[in-house]
Specification:
6-stranded parallel sheet, alpha/beta, single chain, 3-stranded antiparallel sheet, 11 strands, 17% strand, binds nicotinamide-adenine-dinucleotide, 338 residues
């Protein structure tokens, strides 16, 4: 009867969340920047994920409090808090997935590229430590400008001799989350059913939602598609302006970051057909990095999927985004070499 109880518990948990937590392998996740606006709710959401067995929360300061708080939640994972650079190695050791929301956020009037001067150095130093302490981890880069910080990470790993293009991801899930929400509102369909790929990069016009491929399909006018596209591209700015100096998206970003990290964990655990959009090394276009649908597996990227059929409006958007995305990528690479 004990077995039956256990079986019942397993299947209830499995049905409720889509996980079979009792059989999930040990997985360590590290969050770098865990005391920040994104870091704190992301720590909460990762503490709720039954695929995580150890959750390391690292920041330059403030993590002991966040770790003590989150650690009282009665879910599977053990919480480990680390503060200050001398503890970064311990935070990273044995990590399967490292999520990086460290860095300064925008204020009204700024572009994501205006964050480059501060955040490029932060990402460079954190990736140098990743190469040393957990060179095989899947790395989820949230810190902006993503179009440049991901190329910086790749160059740091190349220099350290640890680069594996299958293990480096720019997190663009928030663009997909927004595109789904805005599309469902306009198309009057159930948001839970909506699928919309978002490709390109993660800044302004480099964000290219492919509403022509959205499902459930709807008969939206070209004006409506254009408005949805602009709103998705300016979604970050919409939040920055509403927060009026108190930073950028944190709660919706924590949600998006938790979705993407969960997809990485499922892939590592051998769950089939895990597909998310992400900014990765790519041959889908002539640019060395590009966001598109990616199939995740036991080694990270299993397959970078192509763009599929584009509308004329999307084809124009694709050509229009290339110069900016190219120069942001080159800026990151140049910084890493300097
Ligand atoms: P925040 O200022 O609230 O938090 C950032 C945290 O990073 C702070 O706790 C800070 O102490 C920490 N930090 C700074 N340097 C560090 C270092 N060297 N090592 C470890 N931690 C360090 O900012 P936020 O609102 O959480 O945003 C963080 C970053 O995420 C920003 O760059 C922002 O632009 C970006 N962002 C990206 C997306 C996306 O879609 N990819 C969405 C929202 C925000
Ligand atoms: C977002 O898309 O919300 C983030 O990139 C933060 C920002 O600066 O807009």
């Amino acid at each position: 009867s004990m077995l039956r109880t256990l079986a019942r518990r397993t299947s209830t948990a499995g049905r409720r969340r889509g996980f079979a937590s009792e059989s999930a392998p040990d997985r360590k996740v590290a969050i770098l920047g865990a005391a920040g606006g994104i870091g704190q709710p992301l720590s909460l959401l990762m503490k709720l994920n039954p695929l995580v067995s150890r959750l390391a929360l690292y920041d330059i300061a403030g993590t002991p409090g966040v770790a003590a708080d989150v650690s009282h939640i009665n879910t599977r994972s053990e919480i480990l808090g680390y503060a200050g650079e001398e503890q970064l190695g311990k935070a990273l050791e044995g990590a399967d997935v490292v999520i990086i929301p460290a860095g300064v956020p925008r204020k009204p009037g700024m572009t994501r590229d205006d964050l480059f001067n501060i955040n490029a150095g932060i990402v460079k130093s954190l990736c140098t430590a990743i190469a040393k302490y957990c060179p095989h981890a899947l790395v989820n880069v949230i810190s902006n400008p993503v179009n440049s910080t991901v190329p910086i990470a790749s160059e740091v790993f190349k220099k350290a001799g640890t680069y594996d293009e299958k293990r480096l991801f720019g997190v663009t899930t928030l663009d997909v989350v927004r595109a789904k929400t805005f599309y469902a509102g306009k198309a009057k369909v159930n948001v839970a059913d909506v699928i919309v790929p978002v490709v390109g990069g993660h800044a302004g016009v480099t964000i290219l939602p492919l509403f022509s491929q959205a499902t459930p399909s709807a008969n939206l006018s070209s004006e409506e598609i254009e408005a949805l596209t602009k709103r998705t591209q300016d979604g970050g700015t919409e939040v920055v302006e509403a927060k009026a100096g108190k930073g950028s998206a944190t709660l919706s970003m924590a949600y998006a970051g938790a979705i993407f990290a969960d997809a990485c964990l499922k892939g590592l655990n051998g769950v089939p057909d895990v597909v998310e959009c992400s900014f990765v090394q790519s041959t889908v276009t002539d640019l060395p990095f590009f966001a598109s649908k990616v199939r995740l597996g036991k080694n990270g990227v299993e397959e970078v999927l192509g763009l599929g059929a584009l509308s004329d409006y999307e084809k124009e958007g694709l050509e229009a985004l290339k110069p900016e995305l190219k120069s942001s990528i080159e800026k990151g690479i140049k910084f890493a070499h300097a």
